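Chapter review: from sequence to fold.
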Amino acid sequence: MISTEMMALNARADAGQAWPDIHFYDRAARALTRLLDIDARVRFSPVDERRYLQANHWLDQRCLAFFNQFPKGLGIECGAGLSTRFHRLSEQHEWPQFSWIDIDTEERLLLKSSAMPVIDNYQLLVNNHANDPLVNEIRWDKTTPLMIVADGFSYPLDKAWLSNLLQSLLNTRSADTPIYVHILLEATSHWYERLLRAIGLSVFGHWHTTLTALGGEVDDINYFGKSTHSKQGVILGVALHF
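The token string follows.
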């Protein structure tokens, strides 16, 4: 198991006590740490842990806004790892009607499925790096509003794979079916300086071929500060729609 995922899980599990001002609560994360016997001492630095939680709180709020607008929408989390986002979001709806899919490696999904209960509107799909078969496995009627979520803070994003998956979904959807993308990125300080000078997809540096070419429009960009656990530099939240 990648230590960063363990750090992220511990941060979420302890967020309510360690960082009450962020208002981030995750009962599923607490349960998962116990079920998987995760070492509670494996943690981010305090600075990174706080920024991780703030960034994921922002990501949760974007997801909730999507489901408030589209109560029966579908969310797909790419590189989900030990994410408990579906369970966290479900607790904030009295009668959750949305569906959710976690996509990741077989190893990670087997680990999660061994500890988490099977639920009708929650699906685990293995990323075999072949997008066409994966798109066929996704329970999507092509008319339901779709949201793609990726947390690049706790799990590195494969930009080419994500771009190909998004392109396949865009090609498959019915006319005017909205597709939203909400992602956390780690980027170089130089990239962020360019971003300050000219907000827009065209300045997304090494991400521009992933997102700009597909025609997305920016809804929100949020800066969460510098990361100390990686060489990339800064943490950004980016929200787009297609």
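Two observations follow directly from the output. The radius of gyration is 17 Å. The CA atoms of residues 152 and 185 lie 5 Å apart.
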